[in-house]
Design a protein that fits this description.
InterPro entries: AB_hydrolase_1 (IPR000073), AB_hydrolase_fold (IPR029058)
CATH topology: Rossmann fold
Shape: globular
Organism: Microlunatus soli
CATH class: Alpha Beta
GO molecular function: catalytic activity
Largest sheet: 9 strands, mixed
Protein name: Pimeloyl-ACP methyl ester carboxylesterase
Strand order of the largest sheet: 1-2-4-3-5-6-7-8-9
Number of domains: 1
Strand content: 15-25%
Oligomer: single chain
Pfam family, one: Abhydrolase_1
Helix content: 25-40%
Radius of gyration: 18 Å
Distance between the termini: 38 Å
Amino acid sequence: MADRLPTPTGTLRLADGRDLSWDEHGPTDGPAVFYLHGIPGCRVMWSGLGSAAESAGVRLIVPDRPGCGLSSFQPDRRITDLPSDLSALADQLRLERYWVAGVSGGGPYALATAAAGDPRLVGAVVTNGVGPLHTPDAIAGLYDVNRPVFEAAATGVEACRPIIESMTGGTEPDRDALAAILRAMPAEDRAVIEADPRMAAEVGDLRPAAVNGIDGLAYDLWLAVQPWGFDLTEIAVPVDFYAADHDRNVPIQHAVDQAALVPNSTLTVWPASGHFSGFVRLPEVLAALARTATAEREAPSTAGNSAHTE
């Protein structure tokens, strides 16, 4: 486990006494991007983050959410509380401008940060991001692979604990469980794993996220089925949504619906792609973000909503 839980790049003591830990990848003089992990998860996601950041020339800053990985648990937190943590980290790093990106379950947190109004925030990116799940109808719209998890989570935090325990228990990744997950994946995701077997082991190894216990992870899962606490129509900064047309973890309709509500948004649909496309195509996502960030230094975008398929 030691090689999967490296010492964080830094740990910030916040004003309320909590610790916020983060990793950094890529050049320190590149556009700064806070990259927000999925659910359950932490800053230790995938060994390809470093090469993706380097190739795009982006300073990728990956924080642990409260109670995940090495960041302190925060009782009674809401999705809308994370932006203040990121603002404090931006202060610590002396960032004059930054972007925020969220993958999968990190998407709502990226959008909350976009809605919070920090004048230093240039824009946001969401890849295969989950939409609001605080109603029974929304949960019913999920595919079989995730619906039972979120149905249970909707009954309370305590119901989330055995779910998280089953995902994070043991001293080694459960290879039989990983094999079962692989068999259940759509062909597009299986092809990704077969091309890079490390990804299944790394993305599926959630022990680093639970190094200080599962309270924060259980709470993070419960928050996924709570109201977000902000209005997508009031987001002022540009938001680029990316979605996979064969994603069985997060239905593509989530991205379509969110992009329709955010005033200054784009939607890119990846054809013949599954949920893992959010990792595989991260280099091109970051490269596009870097180009846009550079352009917006001189001429902030005023484009409205648009969509296209690659």
